[in-house]
Amino acid sequence: MHKPPSATIPLHPITDTNGLEGRKIHVRLTEGRFQHLRRLISWPLLAAFFGLVWMQTNGTSWLLFDFPERRILLFGAHFSWYDLHILTGLMITAASLLFFVSMIWGRVWCGFACPQTIWTWIFIRIEHWTEGRAALRQRQEKMPLSGARLARRLLKHTLWLAVALITAVTFTGYFMPIRDLVTQLANANAPATLVGWLVCMTLLTYINTGLVREKICLHACPYSRFQAVMMDDQSLKVSYDSERGEPRGSMKLRNSVQQTKAAVGDCVDCNICVQVCPTGIDIRDGLQAACIDCAACIDACDQVMLKTQRPTGLIRFAAAQEQPQPQRFWRPRLLGYFAVTLIAFSSTGYALVNKKDLVVEIRRDRASLYREFSDGLLCNFYQIKADSFDPGLTQINVSVSGPEGLVLQGPETFLLDNSGEWTAYRVCLTDPAAGVLPITFNFSDQSRIWSRSSSLITSTSYQQR
Ligand code: SF4
Ligand code: SF4
Predict the structure, then answer these.
(1) What local confidence, expressed as pLDDT, does residue 7 receive?
(2) How far, in Å, from the CA of 464 to the mean position of ligand 2?
């Protein structure tokens, strides 16, 4: 059982990027249990991102942010401006869950599931396939560019741009039907604005994950700025066990000190943990804001420990503070995050279950309270607008109930094309009693009825009351 890392691990301020600025980081690939775990998480997420956009049922996308129609399609449900509270609830649930997870496991989101990290690893792999290992790339950096290297570099950038373009098209496919988008692109008749957008998105992805990578995590990501406040000294973070590792020394030095019986730590100073780090930091310097908890250094160091026949875990997930006493898992702040997550989740779930399929607005004609016609009918005038939030609900029948002899004049069937247009209706009665009579508008499809209360004004006594 290893001791947790030293309680005095320094926390580097984010402004100190350990000389990363201007330095090209050549990331060495490594293998290990955390790299397998990241792949286990990344592949389903990538499959969902690239696959979901093509999924349809009866021509309706499973997920589409349809801004022209002011709606979001999500697995058969329609969300619109009317459901903003549900979408807000979903976002609060996701944010509070992130807080909860961060407090237990630190920045695992950054290291294992953030799109920035997943795409960065794809781009690093492409770099590895085309230009060779990190050490080779680093060596060749100082040499003049040969024809073969230029060709490999061009291939790398072409592949990066191809991945960036596919990403841009897929991402855009969540905002307009992807089949239309691809058809327009294939027939070269896509509007200039769409082409401009795709070019911007492609360049943004290419620059973001190909050229600037870790600088986004360091300088642009808001989460990296405030994640420290979510954690406490029991939160797990990737940490170097300095008590066990120091004083570090190479194998050569180690062999020489063995003769003098001087104390030497487990770190063989091979620097591999730095070479595999996608943000280029040395975790042995202590916890740093630039560390995204990707655990690549853990896998790399574990391999070194196995080769040098030492116990693994010199770098590992550990709490920052030494805890001689067993600590309670459910500390108050964690309980608070859990409670907020639970409340947000249950309220959003309740709102989802009770989500409205149909929203009807009924407006009285305020210019004339009622009008009497020569055939003896007394009529009130209404404007009705209805929006459907159920893809299966495309039209409804309209009827009215109330005092005997009530007549509804207007279209019996109401098309729910969500055009936002109002439709005029009259409700009439022969020989009505004076006053304000309660009536009910009924909207129905084959199996459901929605009712809205209203009133029929039959005399000016309404105004005197
Ligand atoms: S990989 Fe492990 S042994 Fe090598 S320098 Fe890093 S901490 Fe030391
Ligand atoms: S220090 Fe280790 S965990 Fe942190 S970013 Fe670098 S490789 Fe990943």
Answers:
(1) 42
(2) 78
CA 266 / ligand 1 centre spacing (Å): 8
Look up residue 290 and give its two tokens. 């630039």
User: Is any atom of ligand 1 closer than 6 Å to the C-beta of 230?
Assistant: no
The ligand that comes nearest to the alpha carbon of residue 35 is: 2
Cβ of 238 less than 6 Å from ligand 1: no
Question: Which CATH number fits the domain that encloses residue 422?
Answer: 2.60.40.10
Q: Which domain holds residue 420?
A: 358-464
Question: Which uninterrupted H or E stretch holds 53?
Answer: none
- Closest residue by CA, ligand 1 atom 7: 267
How high is the pLDDT of residue 408?
Answer: 92
Report whether the peptide linkage leading into residue 247 is cis, meaning its omega lies within 30 degrees of zero.
yes
Answer for the pair 269, 248: CB distance below 8 angstroms, yes or no.
Answer: yes
Q: Is any atom of ligand 1 closer than 6 Å to the C-beta of 273?
A: yes
Q: Is the CB of 268 under 6 A from ligand 1?
A: yes
Ligand 2 centroid – CA 322 distance (Å): 21
Number of separate domains in the chain: 2
Cβ-Cβ contacts under 8 Å for 243 (sequence gap 6 or more): 3, 5, 6
pLDDT of residue 88: 92
Atom from ligand 2 closest to the CA of residue 300: 7
| Main-chain dihedrals φ then ψ at residue 377, nearest 5 degrees | -80, 140
DSSP assignment of 404-432: TT-EEES-SEEE-------EEEEEEEESP
Please give the single-letter amino acid code of residue 131: E
Low-confidence ranges of the chain (pLDDT < 50): 1-20, 463-465
Q: Which atom of ligand 2 is found nearest the CA of 293? A: 3
pTM of the model: 0.78
Q: Evaluate: CB of 297 within 6 angstroms of ligand 2.
A: yes
Ligand nearest the Cα of residue 273 is 1
User: Domain boundary at 154, 186, 212, which?
Assistant: 212
Q: What is the pLDDT of residue 323?
A: 57
- Point out the domain boundary residue: 212, 239, 262: 212
Residue-wise pLDDT tens digits, 39-77: 999 999 999 999 999 999 888 899 999 888 778 888 888
